[in-house]
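Sample pair:
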Amino acid sequence: MSTPTSATVLYKGVDLKVLGTRLAVGDRMPDVELTATDLRRISLSAYAGKVSLISVVPSLDTGICDAQTRRFNDEARKLGDSVAVITVSADLPFAQKRWQTEAEAGNVILLSDHARMAFGDATGTHIEALRLDQRSIFVVDRSGKVRYVEYVRNFGHHPDYDAAVAVARTLTTE
């Protein structure tokens, strides 16, 4: 069951407060609006009917975030069209588009939380002091129910890629 967060994330040895409501397996994924790389506003409900693997990174311009997004770009190709692989960050849409072009990462959907931090507030990933989203992963089934959640406590650590992909793959056969 989702609960308001009193969570923190460890950044350079300092605990920073994370705002929003943490999600748990079984919760519904909130339908928030984000900004696409072409500046269109898009709601997460646009992906209803598909399994969604939502990878959240603080900024694509950091090494781990870059690696995480490249990894899920590769996984998106393997998972196929029945899974929407989405990366959410607080980067400006222009920066996301630049990164996507330079990384040749055409399989992953990039959405920006920059304008309102609505995703971060709705999912408990909004790092207040940095105005970035905490590294996390959500796998959502076709009906909008969260089936996998990982909030990465240490800013500089990788998530469990294999666990998230395994859940997404399982959901494609349900």
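The two ends are 23 Å apart (CA to CA).
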